[in-house]
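We both want to read discrete structure tokens more fluently, so let's practise on a single case. Would you write everything just below, so we can both look at the same thing?
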Amino acid sequence: MPRIVMYGAADCDDTARTRAYLNAQAIAFEYINIDEHADAEQFVIFINNGFRSTPTLVIGEGKRRIILTEPSDDELDRELG
């Protein structure tokens, strides 16, 4: 399984849903709350063309990474299945 980093926010329903989905599927991931890490917040804004969209997931590393923004459960299934 590739490394997964989720950038989220505590008050975001999509973040809570995605975290619950990954936990229910027993998929390991690193969670970074962008409300607590300014550099992570800037990364999310940069990668999402100026929008503070959460959750933003980075799957993989280096040139082979995939970015998913506010993914549905179906999108997660396709990328992680």
About this structure: The first strand starts at residue 4 and ends at 8. The first helix runs from residue 13 to 24. The chain has a mean pLDDT of 96.
